[in-house]
């Protein structure tokens, strides 16, 4: 089976979050299971190296386009270079226009290279226009919602000409959404099967609370049997405390204690247990709830936060970092993230919504017990006999769950039993990869 993934980022070439992680792991497992897999993604100017150029030409609406190829782990990575992407960084305020240019370029590049997949699999709104073009070309297409909050919207009167789509697609049954172009909706409307990255999130987005205005369409897709949830996996080779080069490798509680000592020394923390956080600083992630709960949390915990994003949340954490039990490191720092997962005792994820989440899986694999809100993939991955769950998106609810965790920490027999259960959980990508292949076969 020839499978073609389309996404805005793919680890290790480009990554801003979980989407890049998924595209860095899922295709390789599908290739090991026998599929012929290609991943198409933009070539950003900030990426290092130069892929082997395999095509160059003019594409209407995209300009002078080139395509380059890299092969790793049995997967062909096909990068598309466009004038709109010749600037530093991955994402910018004019991304709807940029990804319209990308969307118009993908099929001409594939046709020039004589690549005709059995199934095209688009990921998130940046691939929505590609899914629409695939449908118009008669190709089979699947589409995955990684985060419904980000939809790729722009005033339709201005954006209409960016898409190159025929006039009939611009109505309410097509890509129009309250007077805007909506590229997420393009993926939903024109794909034959739609998935989200956890079963609970698939149910949640059919409600007004989580549907981001698209719940009516998503209810219809569910009733038609076109919407389902497939839980993300975890790259268990990259995230393995027994072999991780960024930490002191370990397989049990004694080895973990050595990493706690390293983290404690790095940030000058006292002997209280450590509550870790590795997250985007965003309301979605409940970081404001964490900040509001800090006055109570620091009575029982050291709190170590690594993340970047909202400057107001970052400023609040910088202010708190003067407290002897609070440490804040700004931005993306992969080695430090590994040290936090390995050195923390517990891990906080007070998300308002969480399509899947990888941090809680990593934490449990590293013997770090998650404290999570009951939403999305956190419900599907954190067993009550391992982590600590709370229902309300409120600082008091987070603080209460952390009190419970601190009480259990006082019983090290129970705590280590929870650690052992968490470290034994299997979040391998093989199961989800087989589910996706079965979905493709149904198309």
Automatic annotation (TrEMBL):
A Pfam family the protein falls into: Glyco_trans_1_4
Domain Starch synthase catalytic span(s) in chain numbering: 2-218
Listed pathway(s): Glycan biosynthesis; glycogen biosynthesis
Keyword Zinc: no
Top-level lineage group: Bacteria
GO BP term, pick one: glycogen biosynthetic process
Entry EC no(s): 2.4.1.21
Reactions catalysed, as given in the entry: [(1->4)-alpha-D-glucosyl](n) + ADP-alpha-D-glucose = [(1->4)-alpha-D-glucosyl](n+1) + ADP + H(+)
Keywords annotated in UniProt: Glycogen biosynthesis, Glycosyltransferase, Transferase
SUPFAM superfamilies for the chain: UDP-Glycosyltransferase/glycogen phosphorylase
Transferase recorded as keyword: yes
Molecular function terms, GO-annotated: alpha-1,4-glucan glucosyltransferase (ADP-glucose donor) activity; alpha-1,4-glucan glucosyltransferase (UDP-glucose donor) activity
Residues annotated for ADP-alpha-D-glucose binding in this entry: 15
HAMAP family per record: Glycogen_synth
Protein task: Synthesizes alpha-1,4-glucan chains using ADP-glucose.
Entry's family note: Belongs to the glycosyltransferase 1 family. Bacterial/plant glycogen synthase subfamily.
Protein name (Swiss-Prot/TrEMBL): Glycogen synthase
Gene for this chain: glgA
């Amino acid at each position: 089976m020839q499978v073609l993934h389309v996404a805005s980022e793919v680890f290790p070439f480009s990554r801003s979050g979980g989407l890049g992680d998924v595209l860095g792991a899922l295709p390789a497992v599908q290739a090991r299971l026998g599929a012929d897999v290609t991943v198409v993604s933009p070539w950003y100017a900030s990426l290092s190296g130069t892929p082997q150029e395999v095509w160059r030409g003019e594409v209407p609406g995209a300009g002078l386009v080139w395509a380059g190829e890299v092969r790793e782990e049995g997967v062909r990575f096909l990068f598309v270079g466009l004038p709109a992407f010749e600037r530093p960084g991955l994402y910018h305020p004019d991304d709807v226009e940029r990804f319209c240019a990308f969307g118009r370029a993908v099929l001409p590049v594939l046709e020039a290279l004589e690549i005709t997949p059995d199934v095209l699999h688009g990921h998130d709104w940046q691939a929505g226009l590609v899914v629409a073009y695939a449908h118009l070309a008669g190709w089979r297409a699947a589409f995955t919602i990684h985060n419904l909050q980000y939809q790729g919207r722009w005033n339709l009167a201005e954006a209409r000409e960016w898409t190159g789509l025929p006039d009939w697609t611009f109505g309410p049954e097509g890509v129009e959404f309250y007077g805007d172009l909506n590229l997420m909706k393009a993926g939903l409307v024109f794909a034959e099967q739609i998935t989200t990255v956890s079963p609970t999130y698939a149910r949640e987005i059919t409600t007004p609370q989580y549907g981001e205005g698209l719940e009516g369409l998503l209810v219809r897709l569910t009733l038609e049997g076109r919407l389902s949830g497939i839980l993300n996996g975890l790259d268990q080779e990259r995230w393995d405390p027994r072999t991780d080069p960024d930490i002191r490798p370990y397989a049990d509680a004694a080895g973990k204690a050595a990493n706690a000592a390293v983290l404690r020394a790095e940030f000058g923390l006292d002997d209280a247990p450590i509550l870790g956080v590795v997250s985007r600083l965003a309301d979605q992630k409940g970081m404001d709830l964490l900040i509001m709960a800090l006055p109570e949390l620091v009575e029982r915990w050291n709190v170590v936060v690594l993340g970047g994003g909202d400057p107001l949340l970052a400023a609040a954490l910088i202010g708190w970092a003067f407290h002897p039990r609070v440490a804040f490191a700004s931005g993306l720092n992969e080695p430090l993230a590994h040290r936090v997962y390995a050195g923390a005792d517990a891990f906080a994820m007070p998300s308002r919504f969480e399509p899947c989440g990888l941090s809680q899986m990593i934490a449990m694999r590293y013997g770090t017990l998650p404290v999570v809100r009951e939403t999305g993939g956190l419900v599907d991955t954190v067993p009550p006999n391992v982590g600590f769950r709370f229902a309300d998106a409120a600082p008091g609810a987070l603080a209460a769950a952390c009190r419970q965790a601190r009480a259990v920490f006082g019983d090290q027999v129970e705590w280590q039993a929870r650690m052992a259960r968490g470290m034994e959980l299997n979040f391998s990508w093989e199961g989800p990869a087989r589910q996706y292949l079965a979905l493709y076969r149904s198309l």
